Please model this.
Amino acid sequence: MGVMDGILEGAKVAFSFQGILFVLMGVFLGTIIGMLPGLGPITAIGVMIPISYGMDPNMALVMMAGIYYGAIFGGSTSSILLNAPGVAGTVATAFDGYPMAQQGKAGKALAIAAVSSFVGGTVGVIFLMLFAPLLASVAISFGPPEYFALMLLALTAIASLSEGSTIKALISGTLGFMVAMIGIDGQTGTSRFTFGSASLLSGIDFLVIALGIFALAEVFKLIITRNESDSGPNKNIGSIRITKSEMKEMSGPMSRQSVLGFLIGVLPGAGATIASFIAYITEKKIAKNPEEFGKGSIKGLTAPETANNAATSGAFVPLLSLGIPGSGTTAVLLGALMVMGIQPGPMLFTEKPDLFWGVIISMYIGNIFLLILNLPLIPYISKLLNIPRPMLISLVTIFCLIGVYGISFNTFDLYLLLAFGIIGYLLRLVSFPAAPFILAFILGEMIEQSVRKSLTISNGSFMIFLERPITLAFLIITVLSLALPPLLGMRKKIKSIE
Amino acid sequence: MLSSQNKKVSLFLIVLGVVFVIMSVRLPKYPLVPVDADAVPIILGCLLIFLSILLFFIKDEPKDGEDSGQSEPFFNADRKMILLFGGLILLYIIFLEWLGFLLTTALFIFTSTFALGYKKHVTNIVVAIAIPIAFYYLFNYVLKISLPKGILPF
Model:
């Protein structure tokens, strides 16, 4: 089947009544959950997984993808109105969005955010359409050694690119990997670290980890911040009209950052957060009047909003074409797909073109819905920000508990959920990033299996990792991504001493 | 010697790594496979020990306000609240299958919202009754995922 037939198949899925309904549902829920401070796309996707069980996998993925980019879209609303980013990817949005809101131009800021998100998202999807099949056609020749090296690269990249200490991120990843080892080993049937418990034989369900380490830990954090005064969004948001000269000012950053944002999103380990910060910094550097940045600059708001949405589309490239998530959120998406019995990877493109193209095409529709939702309706939706925190905390907790109970019908998993919630909270307390943990947990088993399969192929010789050019290249990049930053840091120190 | 947070965390992780390696080594052996089930866990345990040793020698990052200051008691008001909330979740799990989803959830929402300092009790009661019913209906009748019925007849 040719590419055109595939696209047609996908269009059938995306434009079906159900397809449109679920993408609308996804972006709407995503917008709402993304807007609530403290709750990000991982939590949003996590709580939706139980609801998607009985669904057609095509529709479930269309909805989950909608939740992901919807959450990034929605996060900008609370950044602008409250200076309290709902998701990490919209932190940079608050730099100029919040000052604009304080100047009484909240409506304009929201409109600018909506338009630039739309442009970033749409350009991202166009690139996704071009790149993903290309990458899939290369990846089809990948064997276990290539996959091993690529997944290792994804893990080390997220560690070296995440905020804060690289060592802490690596430890967090190692811990996640260790948790993935629990259960029966796929090759030999040995039960590992189960302490004789039958409930642990099949390993820990990824939903327990995702909802525990992320959602429940976020709830614990919300308990501490629940009393912080938020006055609620300003009632008067002003006009949402964007003038022609403002549009002109936006066009530069929009065109540059949609491309840059997408490319950063494709990279393993880097996602919307890094893309938005890099976008903000580069626009500030090349701007004629950088002193306006941080005081309500239109360019300063356009850049991160374009980039974070473009990066979200970019993150789907490795997920759909290689089956390898590059970030915490796409790792949870991958987990959700596997629950539904779908293994994304290069074969997805040829074997399930309806799914592959259906999701991509639905993203165009989703972005249009988001624009429609965000422009006129945002003042009304933002009233949700007034939900009292104590109520929000109780309800999100219930969501997590039912979500886990709904897959296992076993209270043992609920105790595990509580335990991982506490672990996640402690990790945050000692400033260990949580994203490497979940990525390593999801990739852990795959990495182990690919190493052992490779060594079975080579009869135990490690040369298999060095003889294959692609594998070797990935491994070299992995080593460089770990070794370069500290080396450069040392060089700087030596120079400053001299 | 254990003044810094990194050092404390690092020692804990080193112990964890050692225990993990010991447990891995004691896994049963299969002679027929080139790489046995214990290989990757042993590598992971050693990696954790190595990284934790590096962490031991890294200075703490300066804290931004939150839980700084040695004088504050370990169980300050916030942490007490988290413990209390964790306890409520524990009670929820214990009672869920026995009392049933509707009752346990209603009690949990009301109690925890109240404990977290929400003052409008009437709103709280309305939400605590409406939300469990809505969820119960959605899961049992729309999604066909049956939640525990408990002591109630429906």
